Amino acid sequence: MNIIIQTILTTFGGLAIFIFGMKMMSDGLHHVAGERMRNILRVFSANRIVAVISGALVTCVIQSSSASTVMVIGFINAGLLTLTQSIGLIFGANIGTTITAQLVAFEISWIIMPAIIIGLALSFIPQRKVAKWSETVLGFGFLFLGMETMSAALKGLSKYPAFRDAFRLFDCAPADGSSMIPFFAMLGAIIVGLVATLLIQSSSACTGIIIALGASGLINIYTAVALVLGSNIGTTVTAQLAALTANRVAKQAALAHTLFNVTGVVLIMLTFLVPIKGQPVFFTIISMLGGELPRQIANAHTIFNVVTTLVLIPFVPLFAKVCEALIPIKDKAVKYQKLEPHLLDTPPIALAQTAGSLRQMLQTAWDTNDCAFRIYIDNDEKNRNAVKQLEEKESEVDGFQKDITAYLSELMRRDLTAREAEQIPLLLHCTNDAERIGDHTELIRAITEKLNDANLRFSPEAEREFRSLHGTLTDLASASIALLEKSGIAFQKRAEQINERLNNMLNRSEAEHILRINNGECRPQVGILYLELLEEIRKISRHFENVIERADMFYNKLPEAANSSGDA
Description:
Elements: H1 2-43, H2 48-62, H3 65-77, H4 83-96, H5 98-104, H6 112-123, H7 128-157, H8 161-168, H9 183-200, H10 203-216, H11 221-234, H12 237-243, H13 248-271, E1 275-276, E2 279-280, H14 281-289, H15 293-312, H16 316-326, H17 347-377, H18 381-388, H19 390-412, H20 418-453, H21 460-483, H22 489-518, H23 524-557, H24 560-563
Antiparallel strand pairs: 1-2
Helix pairs in contact: 1-2, 1-7, 2-4, 3-4, 3-12, 3-13, 4-13, 4-15, 4-16, 5-10, 5-15, 6-7, 7-10, 9-11, 10-11, 10-15, 11-13, 11-15, 12-13, 13-15, 13-16, 14-15, 17-18, 17-19, 17-20, 17-21, 19-20, 20-23, 21-22, 21-23, 22-23
């Protein structure tokens, strides 16, 4: 009994090392190739074929379909991908995830110790990129160490009749003389594979366990395939969980993932009804490819995902329509969340999204200023109605500041490069400047209300100056906001030139207005209010100047992958 308990503990210990190695290798690869892989997901998803290839490539490299799928859900929720694009990427991720099964099916136990030794040695090198490679190599070593430990322990357990009998409960091998797989046994094995994947939260890990069970002789190829089919359904829960708090388009994409895998399982099960050479056609193909049982299981996993993708890829638009019908969008406009929580694990994209949210905040802050200025220039019904909404707009600006600050605070807890970490203070400072621009609205509004309530007007010369200053400040606001979307020397110079022109105009207007007051051309009561407005314009321009300066610094530090995303 003690030997049995020890063997069971060794089995679970091997499983733990296997899952730990897989996670370490995936995390390492995710960081090493992350920026390029995320850019591939974003850029190469224009048509369904390219999207499938992109999804497969990214998942092959980062070794995690779960990470790829969650990334895709995050992109959809942020408005960076359409439903059709995302379906192609998710189909591709299903193919990419089969590489793990192919890896663990190799008999390369000789590489375990060298990988662990090299990985550990690399961890002592202080460079960050080398450290991530050390994670990848160490994870690779632990992956195979866990697989070997688990397989050896399972072979020990297979000697005990009680364990062999337990696995016979869902044995899917056809009865003697028959080519038909027992339906209920197959259904039971599919459910077991589904539940196991739900618990482990990794189809790759579950497939690794199935391969280990096959290598130990506890299950045959028929039972292994049924377990693999269940695992492919179970893996869709990752997308479903990620989409719980996302918009309805993201929920549609998660549903498409589930429908695709379930449809694929049904299609493969239908091939079990077609016998060739005394066994179902699917298993005949696996036999023709040859190899030991572990290799056959890995091949079955790959064939399932490749064949179902090739068969179903023409029906991507149909999948999209079905999902749209099952989860209809109730509102006319889909609500996208720029500050998407799932993108926090992809810092370059999260930073670019924050810049996009900051741009919205700055635009809203300027709109409130502009409205307060315009109520003096044209005190008509339209502007008076707009003024009534200023308080709500100012609260919106404060909300932006709170959300951006919280998002960047969460981002700071992630594993960032020095370059990425330097961008966060720049965005925080810009956020504070945008909030202060919004704060000036109340002061401007108080001045313009005094003028309108007392029916006071500036002198003709001051009126012309004020309109000109307001127009130039509007140009400065537009140039500053554009800088948070488009970087470049030309945009930077234009914004700086407008700012310099505005400062010269303010200095000249102040001097000339003081002369008008001294010469009696302007009443002191009106003159003071005019000077107060000039000071407000000057303060607002300084905040825009800060944004211009920091936007340039931000884009100089922004990684190329995020900078080229088109939605910075």
